Amino acid sequence: MRQVLEDMGEYPESLRRLEGAAGGFCAIPRAPGARERVHLQKSSVCSRAYFVVVMVFFHLYIINLIALLLYVHYITGSGEQEAPPERNGPVAQGPDPRDEHHMERSSEPSPGLSFQLPRLEGIRVGHKQRVSIVHDRTHEMRTLSLKPLLFEIPGFLSMEEGSVVMQLAQLKGMSHNPPLISNPGVDVPEEQRLSQDELFSLLDLNQDGLLQREEILSLSHTTEGSWLSSYNLQKIHTGLETHPSGVLSLEEFKRVSDGVLQYSRAAGGLDAHTRLQKGSTHTQLYLGEGTHHLLKSIRNRVTRLTRLPSSLVDLSEPMEVVRYEPGGYSHAHHDSSPSSPDSSCTHTHLAANSSASRQGACRYLTVLLYLNAAETGGEISFPVADNRTYEEEVLGDLSQQYCDKGNLKVKPVAGTALLWYNHLSDGNGWVGELDEFSLHGDCLLTRGVRWTGSVWVNVDPDQQRQERYQRLVSWHPDEHSKRATHADLHQDL
Fold first, then answer.
1. Which residues, at least 6 apart from 482, have a Cβ–Cβ distance to it below 8 Å?
2. DSSP 163-227
3. What is the per-residue pLDDT for 3?
4. pLDDT in the model for residue 253
């Protein structure tokens, strides 16, 4: 017992020595021969591990928060974004945007196969998004109005490209009024009458010396140049269809058209929905095969910008180039015509063999190109853009007061393009009613010269009639290969 008490008395002293050596840690007795352990401060180890864990979770939280903000930013469109094609169903898409020169004419929908028209989203006024219209860069597109749906695309053309289009228009020849063809009952000035040779040259859009069906039908696309009546077109078209080769040379055209030409407006039957222009000259440039490579590039860019099937753009009317002199203007007007049971579209009237008494331009959308910058004046005005309602009796005569009362004016900037829809959607992916808010006019040009190019995409509100027209007029691969030889000879005109 005495030995035990002596041992117990020595234990506190030993314990104090061990605590001093361990730096305050509780010592654990070691077995004889065991390896000596390195004693560390428990508080130090625990705090460091805790800090590392907290920092890892903190960084993960920050990364997730940033990712969530970017996702919300992209979805809500609060800034610039890449505009994805809208898909409302089976939509026929255009070519790959990365291939600038790839523009084969797409095959038309087979019988019974329908397609829908994609439509760009405006989101809100001032919204910006990125669009790909050429293979090497993207362009910014800004929403200017929601009624009508109107966009601005700066840099659509370069300064050099605008100059080339103006030169091509001058080479084609600018005219003050649509050319006239004499009618026995109408007194037409001799200097305004066309010979058959001149008429053939105007009809031969790709200047290959032959008239194809597509060129005859394209003549009726626009009321601005409606200088042949439906009777004239039907006679020429019938002669072309009955010809064994399916094309007409100049001599064959003279035999077919001899004695049938007449001035269409005197004979009536055309929609009088045209705009009053003053101090301007204009011409039309074909954007299809056989034209200057820049004109085909413009067609490609319009296809990619609008995301419409390439066949719709290819079969639409030629681009109209207008040159305004000082003092020039155009009264407010709509580019398209309202649909009605007793009217038909000029571009499908002949192919559909329609018996409607009236014809009108059916232009789903407009792409206006500013080829140069006017010095003073020459703005395009949308007098009722984003109005709450459209009531003519309240608004008054805006055809001549569109600049004074205009809600939206856009100054001409060289290379800038404007895109707006002339029709609403019918809710099923097709053309609906005329958008009355698309009323617009060109303000008085007070100084300098202004050049513009208008590209219209023609779509019939009757979807079956549009698809039938495309099947009849579409270029087939064998025809395309034959005509490519002609196109190679006329790259600059």
1. none
2. HHHHHHHHHH--BSS--B---TTS---GGGB--HHHHHHHH-TT-SS-B-HHHHHHGGG-STT--
3. 54
4. 78
- Supply the pLDDT for residue 32: 58
Residue-level pLDDT at 320: 95
249-to-127, 288, 318, 375, 420 alpha-carbon distances in Å: 52, 20, 22, 46, 39
C-alpha to C-alpha distance for 215 and 286, rounded to whole angstroms: 10
Q: Give residue limits of the domains in the chain.
A: 128-181+273-488
- What is the Cα–Cα distance from 214 to 212, expressed in whole angstroms? 5
pLDDT of residue 188: 44
Q: How many CB atoms lie within 10 A of CB 138?
A: 15
27, HSE (Cβ side, Cα atoms, 13 Å)? 16
Q: How far apart, in Å, are the Cα atoms of 55 and each of 50, 52, 63, 379? A: 9, 5, 12, 59
Selection from 129, 127, 132, 163 nearest residue 145 by Cα: 127
Are 206 and 486 contacting, i.e. CB atoms less than 8 angstroms apart? yes
Question: Do 465 and 437 touch, CB atoms closer than 8 A?
Answer: no
Q: How far apart are CA 448 and CA 446, in angstroms?
A: 7
Question: CA–CA distance from 303 to each of 9, 75, 94, 365 (Å)?
Answer: 101, 25, 7, 12
Sign of CA dihedral 162, 164, 165, 171: positive
Closest CA to 185 of 269, 254, 264: 264
Q: Looking at residue 156, what is its pLDDT? A: 98
Can you spell out the DSSP letters for 406-470?
Answer: -SEEE---TT-EEEEESEEE-SSSSEEEE-GGG-EEEPPEEES-EEEEEEEEE--SSHHHHHHHH
What are the CA-CA distances from residue 360 to residues 24, 220, 226 (Å)? 100, 10, 11
Mean pLDDT by 10 residues, the chain (493 residues): 52 55 49 54 63 86 88 57 41 44 41 72 96 92 97 97 96 71 43 65 76 67 47 67 76 69 38 58 89 95 95 91 93 90 83 74 96 94 86 60 84 97 94 94 94 96 89 57 36 33
159-184 residue pLDDT tens: 999 999 999 999 988 987 544 443 43
Q: Which two tokens stand for residue 432?
A: 């609906």
**Overall size of the chain counted in residues:** 493
Tokens of 165: 């289009």
419 close to 449: Cβ distance less than 8 angstroms: no
Fold of the domain built from segment(s) 128-181+273-488: Jelly Rolls (2.60.120)
Location of structure tokens 């010095």: 375
